[in-house]
Amino acid sequence: MSAxxxxxxxxxxxxxxxxxxxxxxxxxxxxxVTALDRPRLQFERPASLRQEVRGVKPDLIVNAAAxxxxxxxxxxxxxxxxxxAEAPAVLAEEAxxxxxxxxxxxxxxxxxxxxxxxxxxxxxxxxLNAYGRSKLAGDQAIAAAGCDYLIxxxxxxxxxxxxxxxxxxxxLAQQRRVLHIVYDQVGAPTWCRSVAEATALxxxxxxxxxxxxxxxxxxxAGGQTSWxxxxxxxxxxxxxxxxxxxxxxxxxxxxxxxxxxxxxYSVLSNRKVVRCFGLQLPSWExxxxxxxxxxxEGWLWTAPDSH
Length: 307
Fold this sequence. Notes:
The chain has ten helices and twelve strands. It is α/β, with parallel strands linked by helices. The strands form four sheets. It has a six-stranded parallel beta sheet, sandwiched between helices. The chain has a two-stranded parallel sheet with strand order 6-9. A two-stranded parallel ribbon has the order 7-12. Helix 2 runs parallel beside helix 3 and helix 5 crosses helix 8. The two termini are about 35 Å apart.
């Protein structure tokens, strides 16, 4: 990589999360990375982020921090808005002031799931829940700020850290004889490492190329499945593992009431990122196989960490 394509100073926020943890590795060849997270950063107090950004003076800000407790957000919408909308707005303002590029991650939950074909970047968002509303507000604030940005919408993210579907379903299978899994919500399970690696490949083109391609992109694994299909694939891959004997039973969303409504269909089209960056993530099946093969021994069987 030529010196002119480097990002001299990179500020990574949310470095302990699923995508953020992987970004610490993938961004390191691109520049000098300052990786921050709680307790130093207080994302619920967006104004406090200004001082951190101005102290680092980054050329690139990568925001992997988010409030992701979908059901809890129904009662804590103000907090979700502070972290997912007001904080990104502050980062976008600071990026504009510094002449920096901002990378931010969004979600399939900005859509209502009424379509039966993959959502494109041009489709009109209509979130069903507070979490989706807060993420959409963040997207809109960044776009309105006037800075150079990449908003990367992903979906059904899982990895070896934190609370996610793969770890949760395996943990529950150790505790119960029968697991009821929703079959009528469809999406594309996406390994967090794939997102981090694709992000780095986009940024490796250098500041000028990224600025020329600034905007909103969908970035998910290929293909689609239901939560039941995903769970079935996880169990098939782990067949014979000690303690994994639960029966999987498909049920409708109505059988599994939750505080927040979920979109029935949230597959995102990746055509734009393929066209503009020449990038395509593996299929969800390939991503799952890679995630399970590359994970450290015992990662699924331990309780998720606090991040």
